[in-house]
Predict the structure.
Amino acid sequence: NISRRLLADGLIEEAGRRRGGRGSPPTNLIINPEACYSIGLNVDRDHITIVMVNFVGQTIARRSLEAAFALPDVVADFYRGSVSDMIAEADVDLSHVVGVGVASPDDLGLVDLPGRPAGYSQWDTADWKALFGEPFGLPVFVENDSAAAAMGEQQLGLGQKYPSFFYLLVSWGLGGGLVLDGAYFRGADGRSGEIGFLPDSDGRGQIQTHVSLSGLAVLLQKEGAKLADLQRRDPKINAVVDHWLGNAIEKLREPLAAVNCLINPAAILIGGRLPGDLIDQLVR
């Protein structure tokens, strides 16, 4: 009965019959990718990304903006100016778009990371649902970026292999997400996994001051380079990257040992916006 209702609503569809065995061959049922769509928005301190995904989580349209500490009105203008084009580009019926998911670090406007201007504290009082509810009046869901990344991995990635894992998100800051026995664990106040806020062992601030894109950007800036220059990777930039990697490994050693001892995850997964080869080196 449930399957018949889902078929009638167009959320699933038949995909042939399975042969073999006794009796009437069973019908294979699959999710209909075009049944509905959603919009995802990631707001970080140096980067904004908008994606549209179908019902099986495939990205069908994307827009990005590189902007240092963009204020709420700038991000809202970028979103509203992009989303109509994305829907048209993907040839999607607006009535099939079910909502907007916004992922951003906790305390976006308050955490003191390198380069933060005083006016960036506007994010602390911003009405996220009002900012991104227009132009279509869609429901808006706001989530911590590390939690969103961990839940995405849980549903569509390696979480299908590892029911318990800790997710390390390297962005302008450093975050974490915890999945236990197939369910995301939020903690008493929804702040579980905040590994970036752990104090640095040498007393110089927090771990995320060093293990983050912002920490890498500070080192590159001393050599007259930027994060965008990582694609070049000349000897000078390679030396900075090697120094950053060595320091990041030292900063993460004790926190990740604690995660292993206290939680016993099947895996620690590292994601975020580091270039893939740097993530591979950090993992090794």
In short: The chain is about 30% helix and 25% strand. Residues 235-263 form the longest helix (29 residues).
